[in-house]
Amino acid sequence: MGRKKKKQMKPWCWYCNRDFDDEKILIQHQKAKHFKCHICHKKLYTGPGLAIHCMQVHKETIDGVPNAIPGRTDIELEIYGMEGIPEKDMEERRRVLEQKTQAESQKKKQNSQDDSDEYDDDEEPGPSFQQPSMQPQNSFIPP
Ligand SMILES: [Zn+2]
Ligand SMILES: [Zn+2]
């Protein structure tokens, strides 16, 4: 199985705000948790699909997606995996993720930023430094 590196958000469930590593797992989760008929336990694919199923098979109306957090129970929204999520919620999610990664990189910066105060002037201008290369040879005096 080849992995294409798409620059995409990590899958998450719009209905309950849970993170997933794989969109396949997310879809399985949605079918099991949010699109499952509470009467016959049939797994549907979307919220509206579930509503239609309950209406046609059991003559029941569903007023919200099961197991969804408050405000995310809209049964009319056709969300499947990461598809169909309202743009404003995608944006909010992106912002939250950005803030998370920013906070993490700031933490790292603080750890490696401590010895910038000391300034050592080690550079000497060349010409003023003389090497004693010529030694006077008068230490040995012949008799
Ligand atoms: Zn969920
Ligand atoms: Zn059913």
From TrEMBL:
SMART domains: ZnF_C2H2. GO terms for biological process: attachment of spindle microtubules to kinetochore; mitotic spindle assembly; mitotic spindle assembly checkpoint signaling. Residues 13-34, 37-58 form the C2H2-type domain. Residues 114-125 have a biased composition (Acidic residues). GO terms for cellular component: kinetochore; nucleus; spindle matrix. Residues 85-98 have a biased composition (Basic and acidic residues). InterPro entries: Znf_C2H2_type. It is found in: Nucleus. One of its GO terms (molecular function) is zinc ion binding. Keywords: Metal-binding, Nucleus, Zinc, Zinc-finger. Transmembrane segments: none annotated. Residues 82-143 are annotated as: Disordered. It comes from the Eukaryota. Residues 128-143 have a biased composition (Polar residues). CDD domains: SUF4-like. This is C2H2-type domain-containing protein. It comes from Conger conger (Conger eel).
